[in-house]
């Protein structure tokens, strides 16, 4: 149903502007500069030419079919334009413009929606930051981001979506599609789950929602979804719930009800923005594992202990190494290494030691937490080899890297490039293991 | 007592090496390159010259007084060298070398310590990553860091210290002194608290400890300390406590006892590595506040709501704005802004709006949380003005910036340069407000 929204062959930018300070210019420019390969039609009553493209005075003037309309015009003009989309047969619209329900103009939003429904037009927004499908090279949003990844980001808050997008850029892992849901007048979390469940470029759905329109439909869609879903939903406190109502006119609902819905449908709930990103990043590349036995291999004893507290207090088992394993390990590591779990290779650790210890202890654990707490060269190559071995046997490897300066930056970038997520603290990596297990 | 340790006029590097791959080279080089203005004496039985400095075969051969000895030689040679320090009258030693208590060699550590005590030598380590006093331009550690700041970092884990140091570099706020405590054979958390309580360059002490040697002394020292103390202490779970014993032979003790000690002595306890850094960064520049009323000013409604949940569930009051205040605000912000708390300026927000709203609502709140959720130019200048006004009246301002791309990077760097800490998510900023209040 939303194929034309996210994979259009032609896009009209309604409210395209020649003024570089205006959003109607930025979005047109980003669609062009992002490398969109379909037809692009700037629409503006003034006509003329913008960024080398002919401007149409109305979408009606466009000869060919238009799949998607991106709308950036004053709110009160939107209903008229929607009628034109209906006449033209456009079936998908992203309305960036604000000033609808969120500003007290419920009637205007209802009017817009009535026209959309009557004409079979699906609507994202209004009051949103657009969409960006990196795999279709369609950045109908800002800033311009083109790095292809596996995470579908869908959010009722433009800022939350932008923060996730920015972090995924910094990490060099990118996202598949970015969707700013805005007022969710039509397309909502259920549509998103249904669409991205089937999207060939998406491995995980990261959702920020302030309210769920229809709990039953949400649970059904989540249960049927073929991809993991990670959700951040605020409004846990009474004041938070009230603010939700002011912000997007959503109903936060009772938090216990939402929590139960998540459990029932296998949705992973993030407790904060960092968890939303971490868990999405983890599920994009890693799988769950059988059993509860976790082995920590580290160059930093302290970091290992910080991880233990998170793992053990969440039902995972940082088992004690037995004498047989210790005897095997003793031949692989320096005399001063600690052979209990966490296996502490100390500051002299080399990437090779991680690999050797991993191989020797492979049968003993269901999941491995590798913590690099020093500037350890070659870490990425070792982890790439380790991850391949683990994957074959259905075991999970999670990596944390910290305190490693310039070498850390290089090795982490290399791991991310190879599809191995790395987390900046032992606790965040440990929480990821807990989430993968759940 | 530890003045000669952290502010020496002369330093001997015992185990200085000409081999760039060895720590004995790195540390000597970092002391030189860091700009240490006192005398530097490389010591190595081979003699010769390293990095342009004359090498002495023994510290006994040095004619002048030596304040501090940094020791990087095999563990078994350490006692002999300690005797030499005694003869020479050196009163402070940092022992980098590992292979003592942590490796099962309790006797060697006892022997070293007996010599130290007999000769009145204070010892940091062994098994540590050295010290770095940026204000004295003394980097007897690695990597070379010279950025002067206000946070004293002291840690039983070299990696934890290194991670904090690295983050403080990235943020451009630096640290005052970095102390890797290692095995804590002599200098421990109590000495650290006592020394940095008086250190003119330190505003806050960030501690990572796995155990506290003497609970009563810890409480006494913390109570008397003139600076805020933030502590991260793992070993909360049974397995965590056991790992603490393996790692640094510390006794984790009962967590409830430590928690009570912290409460009793006003120590702020961090729950994880990020909190340790965030809280230290906050206390280095911000003060607590009277009252509980928090006003959130944001360009991102969603971010505001994420912050509310943290604030309200921790005893702070995100009060509702009254009609009088709303009437004042209405003249300062766009019509579609939301005037409830959080005051949501929406994506059109300008830095000037933050300043105007802050001024208009100044009397209504005890603390302000400013969230910039868009690329808002001039944010830094507005926040600098806001912070100055707030400071005069004993009110606290905490800032979060996210989803703002390149402009975010620039504005945040500017704020950090001006001594205004900025936090990367609304939840982390909110937790900082909670910690400041406690």
Summarize this structure briefly:
Chain A has 438 residues and is α/β, with parallel strands linked by helices.
Number of strands of chain A: 19
Determine the CATH topology of the largest domain in chain A. Answer: Rossmann fold
Write out the strand line-up for the largest beta sheet of chain A, numbering strands in chain order.
9-8-11-10-12-13-14
The CATH class name of the largest domain in chain A reads Alpha Beta
Task: Give the CATH superfamily of the largest domain in chain A.
Answer: Succinyl-CoA synthetase domains
Q: Please give the radius of gyration of chain A in angstroms.
A: 25 Å
Q: Given the helix and strand composition of chain A, which structural class is it? A: alpha/beta
Helix content of chain A: 40-55%
Mean pLDDT of chain A: 95
CATH architecture annotation of the largest domain in chain A? 3-Layer(aba) Sandwich
What is the count of helical runs of chain A? 16
Total separate domains of chain A: 3
């Amino acid at each position: 149903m939303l194929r034309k929204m996210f994979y259009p062959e032609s896009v009209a930018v309604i409210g395209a502007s020649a003024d570089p300070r205006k959003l109607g210019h930025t979005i047109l420019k980003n669609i062009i500069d992002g490398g969109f390969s379909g037809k692009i039609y700037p629409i503006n009553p003034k006509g003329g030419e913008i960024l080398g493209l002919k401007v149409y005075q109305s979408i009606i003037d466009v000869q060919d079919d238009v799949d998607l309309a991106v709308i950036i015009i004053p709110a009160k003009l939107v209903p008229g334009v929607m009628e034109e989309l209906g006449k033209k047969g456009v079936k998908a619209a992203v309305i960036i413009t604000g000033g609808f329900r969120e500003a007290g103009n419920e009637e205007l939003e209802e009017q817009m929606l009535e026209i959309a429904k009557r004409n079979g037009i699906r609507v994202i927004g209004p009051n949103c930051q657009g969409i960006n499908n990196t795999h279709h090279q369609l950045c109908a949003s800002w800033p311009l981001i083109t790095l292809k990844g596996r995470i579908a980001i869908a959010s009722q808050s433009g800022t939350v979506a932008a923060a996730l997008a920015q972090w995924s850029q910094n990490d060099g892992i990118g996202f598949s599609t970015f969707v700013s849901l805005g007022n969710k007048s039509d397309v909502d979390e259920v549509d998103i789950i249904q669409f991205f469940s089937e999207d060939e470029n998406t491995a995980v759905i990261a959702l920020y929602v302030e309210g769920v329109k229809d709990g039953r439909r949400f649970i059904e869609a989540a249960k049927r979804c073929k991809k993991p879903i990670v959700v951040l939903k605020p409004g846990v406190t009474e004041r938070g719930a009230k603010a939700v109502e002011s912000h997007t006119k959503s109903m936060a609902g009772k938090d216990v009800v939402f929590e139960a819905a998540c459990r029932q449908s296998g949705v992973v709930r993030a407790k904060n923005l960092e968890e939303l990103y971490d868990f999405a990043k983890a599920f994009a590349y890693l799988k769950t594992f059988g059993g509860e036995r976790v082995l920590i291999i580290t160059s930093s004893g302290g970091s290992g202990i910080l991880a233990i507290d998170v793992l053990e207090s969440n039902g995972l088992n940082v088992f004690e190494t037995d004498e047989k394993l210790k005897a095997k390990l003793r031949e692989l590591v320096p005399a001063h290494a600690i052979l209990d779990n966490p296996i502490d290779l100390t500051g002299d650790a080399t990437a090779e030691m991680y690999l050797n210890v991993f191989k020797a202890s492979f049968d003993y654990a269901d999941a491995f937490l590798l913590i690099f707490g020093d500037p350890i060269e070659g870490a990425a190559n070792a982890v790439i080899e380790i991850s391949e071995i683990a994957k074959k046997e259905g075991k999970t490897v999670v990596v944390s890297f910290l305190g490693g300066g310039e070498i850390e930056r290089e090795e982490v970038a290399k791991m991310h490039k190879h599809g191995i997520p790395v987390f900046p603290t032992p606790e965040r990596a440990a929480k990821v293991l807990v989430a993968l297990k759940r």
